[in-house]
Amino acid sequence: MSIMADKSVVSDWDFSRESRCFNCGKEVSQQIKITPNDIIVTCSNCGAERHYIIRSFLVAEKKEDFELSNRKRKYDVWRFKKMTRCANCLNDAEQEIVIDEHVGTVVCPVCNFTRIYRFSVFSRPDVKK
User: Fold this and answer.
1) Non-local CB neighbours of 40 within 8 Å, separated by 6+ positions
2) Number of neighbouring beta carbons within 10 Å of residue 20
3) From 38's CA, which of 4, 55, 57, 59 has a CA 20 to 30 Å away?
C-alpha cells in the first residue's frame, strides 16, 4: 500500500504541556511549537529552549512499524494527543504524539499513518534575563 501525505494539510502546531524544565527544574508549562522542520520547547518560567532539529523523516504503514528507542534518555518521554486533520486520510482525529530526545512520532488512529522524525537536540538555557 502506498501512502501519500497531503502536504497542504501539514501545518505548525502550538500548544503547551506541564513538565519539569531541563534548565530550572520547575514543574511548569512548557510551550511546544512543532513545524515541518523542527520542534522547539520553551520553559514558561525561565525561558530556556530545547531545539529538536529534524534530520530525517520516515513513513510507516502501520503503527506497529515503530518502537521508541531503548537509548538512555536525558529528558522525559512525552506522550499526548492533538486533535487535527490527518495528512493521509484527511479525517479529523486525535493524532497520537510521542517525543523523546532521539525520535518523535505522530500517528493517525484512523488509518495508522505514522510520521517518524529522527532529530538532533540542542539547548539554550537561561534565555530570559
Assistant:
1) 32, 33, 49, 50, 51, 52
2) 14
3) 4
- Cα 115 to Cα 108: distance, rounded to the nearest angstrom: 9
Listed residue (43, 102, 107, 103) closest to 80, CA to CA: 107
The rounded mean pLDDT for the chain is 76
DSSP per-residue string spanning 65-128: G-----S--SS--EEEEEEEE-TTT--EEEEEEEE-SSEEEEE-TTT--EEEEEEEEEEE----
**CB hemisphere CA count around 128 (13 angstroms):** 9
Q: Which pLDDT band, with edges at 50, 70 and 90, does 86 fall under? A: confident
Q: Helix, strand, or coil here: 51?
A: strand
Location of C-alpha cell 502506498: 2
**What are the tens digits of pLDDT across the range 54-79?**
776 666 666 655 555 566 777 778 88
